[in-house]
Amino acid sequence: MSPWRALTCLCLFSLTASCADQPVITKTEYRQVYLPDRFLRECPVPQWGGGTYRQIGAHAKRIKTALENCNLQLQQGREYQDAIRSGQQLPGGVVPLK
Predict the structure, then answer these.
(1) pLDDT value of residue 40
(2) Strands (E), the chain
(3) pLDDT in tens, the chain (98 residues)
(4) Residues with Cβ < 8 Å from 95, sequence gap 6 or more?
(5) Do residues 33 and 80 lie in contact, with contact meaning Cβ atoms separated by under 8 Å?
(6) What local confidence, expressed as pLDDT, does residue 98 receive?
(7) Distance, CA of 24 to CA of 55 (rounded, Å)
(8) What is the CA radius of gyration of the chain?
(9) Which of 70, 68, 46 lies closest to 58, judged by CA?
């Protein structure tokens, strides 16, 4: 047998050895986690009932406060989701499922 043929057989034999291993099978498990109702409440919008120019300024301030409260509610919901994704302990001692 020629040296090249022996070398080729040796290389082919070593390549087929890696095929004998069992493939790793990854099973993804999905769990549905619902946000608490406190994050899903609608944000109240102050209604304008008419009035003077001075009341327009006060109304704009009420709208700004309502918007800030709504953004805070959304931020808390996002932090809750991030805590669930990372497996951290949530406020109130709740530990999310992994």
Answers:
(1) 84
(2) none
(3) 677 777 776 666 666 656 666 778 888 877 677 788 888 888 988 998 888 888 999 999 999 999 999 999 999 888 888 888 777 666 655 555 54
(4) 87, 89
(5) no
(6) 45
(7) 68
(8) 31
(9) 46
Total residue length of the chain: 98
Which residue ranges make up each domain of the chain?
34-98
Instruction: State both tokens at 13.
Output: 């034999």
Cα separations in angstroms, 67 against 25, 32, 50: 48, 29, 20
Tokens encoding 21? 């291993």
* Residues 4-29: b if buried by 16+ CB within 10 A, e if exposed: eeeeeeeeeeeeeeeeeeeeeeeeee
